[in-house]
Amino acid sequence: MDQRQPPRRNSDLLKGGQISIELEQWFTRLQQSLGLEVGADYLNIQGKRSQFNNFLAASCSQPPAGLTTDQQEKLRNYAEGFHNYNSLSVDQRKRIVIDLRRSLHQWRTELQPTSSPSAPRLRLEKIDIDTSESISKLSTFNLNTPLGQIDGISSKLATQFAKINLWLVKDLLHHYPRDYVDYSQLVPISSLQPGSTATIVATVKRCHAFVSPKNPNLSILDLQLQDPSGKLKISKFMAGRRFTSTAWLHQQMRSYPVGARIAASGLVKESRFGISLQDPLLEILETPNTKLQSRQIGRLLPVYPLGEGLVAERLRESVIKILPVVNQLLDPLPDVWRLKLKLISLREALYQIHQPESADFLQASRRRLVFDEFLLLQLALGLRRLQIKLKNAPVLPASAVGNRLLNFQKLLPFQFTPAQARVLQEIRADMAKPQPMARLLQGDVGSGKTVVAIAALLCAIDAGHQGALMAPTEVLAQQHYEKLCSWMPHLNVTVDLLTGSTPAPRRRALLQDLANGQLQFLVGTHALIEDPVNFVSLGLVVVDEQHRFGVAQRNRLLNKGLQPHLLTMTATPIPRTLALSVHGDLDVSQIDALPPGRLPIITQVLSNQERWIAEELIRTEVAAGHQAYVVLPLVDESEKIELRSAVEEHQRLAHEVFPDLSLGLLHGRLNSSDKQAAIEAFSRGVTQVLISTTVVEVGVDVPNATVMVIEHAERFGLAQMHQLRGRVGRGTSPSHCLLINNSSSAIAKQRLDVLARSSDGFEIAEVDLRLRGPGQVLGTQQSGLPDLALASLSDDGSILEEARDVAQAILAADPELIEHRQLAEDLALQKQKLANAARLN
Ligand code: ADP
Ligand code: MG
Predict the structure, then answer these.
(1) Residue 15 has what pLDDT?
(2) Structural domain includes residue 800
(3) Do 587 and 552 reside in the same domain of the chain?
(4) 363 lies in a domain?
């Protein structure tokens, strides 16, 4: 037990460590004046009634009741110090002020009712974190010092660090622990829980060191310990000849004399001999107040990602060596924000993430560092947005002369839903402004984004400009083109298709028409943003299924010197945190309701043995005149994993299961005309069952299809399967989606059940984000998300929102970050890092 706090009486415990108002006020006054003195660079400021040092000396010599005798004694020492304050050097003043501040903070926290009443504390060693704004230059190294030049880091160790990309002091500083072993729980012996990690403070009752009778190379130290709650025997095993000498054994026994107080940390284990600590870490406490020498006992012990040959202990020691460098950091976050958001300083945060004093500190530290990661991300996006908005775009007045838009709506067999109409309005309002639109259109699969996009493109054409619609695959581009061909001639609009497989002569003619304005509407793959493509007057670009494109491609459009309005569309609903992180530079419109009359898609998870249910269903639906998809993850039979590939499955179904039906095959390895033929045959109803890879994921629109079977469903992302499911349920008949699960894992089943239960794309994407990470949700091609070392998009949503607000406020007041130099520098560094990473890829 820590004697600074004598065991509380029961009545004290009931009150839960209450703190008197008088004491509360005393703390506040002292902490305030200490804070002012720090702000005044330790000048011994003159207060209203007395000088700082006199006020402190008086307050410390007569504290109100409620403090322990130990604390009172400490305060008397401080009183002495402040009495002589005028004769101290600035450094000495600083030390006593900071020291008292820390003690006050700690005592006050301990007295707060929220802190666990009976938890005593060990005194842990900590480096001095400078709380002043100035940079300490005392150190012999700085952030950019190579690790090999640090005292105590050998060149061999530095080489091992380099292998995991740690070269400079700052690299190691930002090499965060991946976990912590919790030795911070100071537990009475009687409350030790097997399986947990804990620290005890107890008295040595017996000590015996001896060579194992069974192994002459093993020595054993047995300690019998006792605290007021009970007794505990612990053993420490030491392997090696040198530990077996009589001298050494005697020295061990002298080190742990009977009656000494000892702190021990370890994993609590239970054996037939009772409870004990496994492989305990031990340290004798000279007096209850001695600071622990050990960097492990009583702490949240950091566990770092290691590389080959790197010993955890060496890494931990090295981090401790470089930690004082935090005093050289300037806090990029202005104090106003820091205080408002109750964030700890960057110096403190970086210290505490490596050497947390407590779980609370660790949490506060994480929160601060996560905030900073998000803030940089949001600032970068905010700046990009400002850049976009600085360019000039063609103004496309909402009251455009032509009326192609109206005529288009007349051609459609349906009316726009209110959600579609609203979104179109948002888009038109944007396009009527002289700054380029940068808008993301989100809408669940089947919500009718395409017609809205076409309507917007027609507005641009009505206003005398050209429009471009970019699709991620040739299949989809072709399909859009065909649809457009059935509408555009009626609207007096010229349309053409450009993909990688457009023959050269056709391509040449097309480019010419584009450049002289004869061609108004161009559909295509990313070929249409490639170099020789020049529009005479591009008004609007729509990027369909943008999650299939990288951010880099999106940027290419903007960097081309074109300043068209830009509408990107995605059918993968992106959870808000992810959308803010990747598309924070875009405005977002959302079609949040499906067209009327859609029937829910009945979704079912089947085991491998239940495949016959799917086959029966296909048969029934086809007999009723409908069509079905069977989707598989891979093209060829993989040798290692037994996957039912599309080609194999096509064979099996064609010969063994549905020899009487007409089957089609579609996969990515087909050349584009074969692909096209397969899709055409299916959409004309010539093939009844289409066996396919995920090529059909985007856009294929065959309303007569009512069954979607997904093989090896456990291998797909949920969002992706939600997309696939969206291929059915497009007509008026009830549709089915059957997920065949070949995995016996409970988690796989649980994931798939989400899909069976929910038809809400956002909910599904949230689960995917949680279970499979952002890469899965965004699709493999999506990049542009900087490395977040600590931040989690699924857990830290509220911090992200805060950071976004702060970023917006900062940029609104200081768009060039002139008043925020440190932030600007950090941003530049991050940008450089991203650029370097891109070059390596
Ligand atoms: P997505 O948002 O997945 O791209 P699409 O634009 O492909 O959706 O539309 C899905 C289907 O819904 C298409 O067949 C389309 O013609 C139809 N559709 C779109 N809007 C409406 C509407 N307002 N009412 C009825 N059907 C609509
Ligand atoms: Mg679509």
Answers:
(1) 34
(2) no
(3) yes
(4) no
- Which residue has a Cα nearest atom 13 of ligand 1? 448
Q: Is residue 370 part of a domain?
A: no
Nearest residue (by CA) to ligand 1, atom 16, is 448
Q: Which two tokens stand for residue 78?
A: 């401080």
What residues flank ligand 1, with Cβ below 6 Å?
A: 414, 416-417, 420, 443, 445-451, 571, 595, 701, 703, 730
**Residue 648 belongs to a domain with what CATH number?**
3.40.50.300
Residue 77's domain comprises: 10-111
Exposure string of 37-52, with b = 16+ CB inside 10 Å and e = fewer, is bbeeebebeeeeeeeb
Joined tokens for residue 795: 């857990």
Among 415, 766, 295, 784, residue whose Cα is nearest residue 576 = 766
Statement to judge: residues 575 and 663 lie in one domain: no
Residues 105 and 221 grouped into a single domain: no
| Token digits of residue 684 | 């004309």
Say whether both 605 and 749 belong to one domain.
Answer: yes
Atom of ligand 1 nearest to the CA of 445: 3
Distance 663 CA to ligand 1 centre (A): 26
String of DSSP letters for 515-552? HHT---EEEESGGGGSTT---SSEEEEEETTGGGS-HH
Q: What radius of gyration do the chain's Cα atoms show?
A: 35
Instruction: Specify the residue with its C-alpha closest to ligand 1, atom 23.
Output: 416
Tokens 């894992």 sit on residue = 745
pLDDT at 235: 92
Distance 471 CA to ligand 2 centre (A): 9
Give the pLDDT of residue 561.
47
CA-proximal residue: ligand 1, atom 1 (nearest): 446
- Residues 668 and 641 occupy one common structural domain: yes
> pLDDT digits over 781-833, tens only?
444 565 677 887 778 888 988 999 999 999 999 999 999 999 999 999 887 77
- Domain CATH code at residue 252: 2.40.50.140
Pair 613, 581 in one domain:
no
Number of domains in the chain: 4
Residue 530 neighbours by CB distance under 10 Å: 13
Q: Is residue 519 part of a domain?
A: yes
**Which amino acid residue places its CA nearest to atom 5 of ligand 1?**
448
The number of C-alpha atoms within 13 Å of 83 and in the hemisphere containing its C-beta is 9
- State how far the Cα of 68 lies from the Cα of 6, in Å rounded to an integer: 8
Of the listed ligands, the closest to the CA of 705 is 1
pLDDT score for 18: 57
Per-residue model confidence (pLDDT) at position 137: 59
Q: How far apart are CA 440 and CA 587, in angstroms?
A: 6
In whole angstroms, what is the distance from residue 748 CA to residue 763 CA? 17
Q: Which ligand is nearest to the CA of 444?
A: 1
- Quick one: pLDDT at residue 785? 61
Nearest to 566 by CA among 676, 674, 427: 427
pLDDT at 116: 39
Q: Which residues of the chain have pLDDT under 70?
A: 1-18, 112-121, 130-139, 287-289, 398-402, 531, 545-562, 634-644, 697-699, 774-787, 834-841
The answer for residues whose C-beta is within 8 angstroms of residue 466's C-beta and 6 or more apart is 460, 514, 517, 519, 520, 521, 522, 535, 536, 537, 538, 539
Q: How far apart are CA 701 and CA 726, in angstroms?
A: 9
**Three-state SS at 63:** coil
User: Which of 447, 452, 482 most suits a substitution to test ligand 1, by most atoms within 8 Å of the C-beta?
Assistant: 447
| Ligand 2 is an ion; residues with CB less than 5 A from it | 450, 699
CA–CA distance, 481 with 761 (Å, rounded to integer): 27
Output the pLDDT for position 312: 82
Cα distances (Å, whole numbers) of residue 40 to 170, 336, 339: 30, 18, 18
Point out the domain boundary residue: 88, 111, 134.
111
pLDDT at 5: 41
